[in-house]
Every structure is written in C-alpha cells, then in structure tokens.
Amino acid sequence: MTTSASAPLPASVLEALARYDTPTICNAMEIVAPERRLIGYTVKPLVCPFPTLPPIVGYARTVAIRSVLKSGLSAEEQSKRRIEYYEYVGTGFGPRISVIQDIDGPDVGYGAFWGEVQSAVHKALGCLGVITDGSIRDIPQWAPGFQALAGSIGPSHAWVHAESFGGEVRVAGMTVRSDDLIHADSHGAIVIPYDIAAKLPEAAELCGRRETPILDIARSKDFTLEKLKEALKRSAEIH
C-alpha cells in the first residue's frame, strides 16, 4: 500500500479539510475559486446510510460498472480482471475514495456492486468510502466506518462487474478522474483541485466568521428586521 507521504499534498492538508463538512468546503470554494461555482460537485441526490460518519477526504479510484449485461470475459479472464482492479484500488496516493459510475443507462442501479464483502475489501485496501450512482446493499453488515453515497439501495447484484477502471467517470453530475482529491459527507461530494486545497481551510473559517453575526441575531430573542440589516452589514465587512 502507498502511504500519504508520496501523495501530492501533505497529510496535514487533508486532515484540515476533513474538519469541515462538504457544504462548508463548497462555500470556501466559492471564495477561493469562484470560477468553479457551477462545476466539480454532485448535483443529484445520493443515499447516505451512515449520515453520522465524519467527512472523508481522499484521492479518487475511478471505476465504471454494469450489471444488466453479463461480462463477455471468460472465468479466467474475469478472475485476472478482478485482481488487476484490486491492485489499482489498493495502490497509489492514499487515503483513497472509490468513485464508481454505473453505465447501465436507464437501468442504473439494477445490480449492486457494493455490499458486505466489497465494503470490507475496499476498506482493507485503504479506501475511506464509496461514491456511486449505482446501488448498494447489505447495509447492516457494511464495513464499520466505511462511508457510502449511492444512487439507490437494492437487494441483488445481478450480473454486476467492473467494465473499466482508472478512467474518467461522472457520478451524480460530478466528473472525476483517477487521483482527483475528493471531499465527501452525507450531503454529497466535491472535487478539490490540488493547487487550492491548502487555501480552503482559511476560507472556510472566513465563511464561518461572516455567518456568525447573522446567526447570532437570527437566534436571538431580541431579533428585529433592523438588527438583521445591521448584522448583514457587519457580515459583509468581514474579510
């Protein structure tokens, strides 16, 4: 397994990013990289069976799956492909997050790639969680602490198999490439460009300071519209 020492960003940066929820990271991104205001994050709802788990931050391992059609590979070739897939998932920059696109079109989610076994295996391979527009199952038996964002929950894996891995995928409107830095929690996920990652924690703190005067007056028993106007003005002056 590759440790974070060889990764493009220090582990301390990922740890700092993980202190904030994904909406806050999106807010910070609007300050640091306003040109990305409409791109780089999930825009369709995903199911999160474990909403109390903390945010995860890691490097993407990208996969395309399908389940409606049976794999055309022989049993021997399928076994070889599975090993190659696990080698891809278990190596590279760490920690890692599996990002899986279901390419079954109108039948997306027909079969679940993820369940008790895959969550346990991927956790052992150094992944923190999965983001997929496909389905997942075995929720009670899921690997403890392994986060999941999925398009649906279903009972069967049908003919599910990995068609390809390591390429560009698109999940819930978010385009991801292998090794992209991902931040995710129960709200969704966002791609963080390497060159601005270290700037986001400071921007997140700025967002919090700007929200404080507004929240204080909104939660006050002495709330008035005039006081709200004053709070909005104070908020705008914080830099």
Automatic annotation (TrEMBL):
Source organism superkingdom: Bacteria
Cited InterPro entries: RraA/RraA-like, RraA/RraA-like_sf
Cofactor(s) in the UniProt record: a divalent metal cation
Record's protein name: Putative 4-hydroxy-4-methyl-2-oxoglutarate aldolase
Organism name: Bradyrhizobium quebecense
Phylogenetic placement of the source organism: Bacteria, Pseudomonadati, Pseudomonadota, Alphaproteobacteria, Hyphomicrobiales
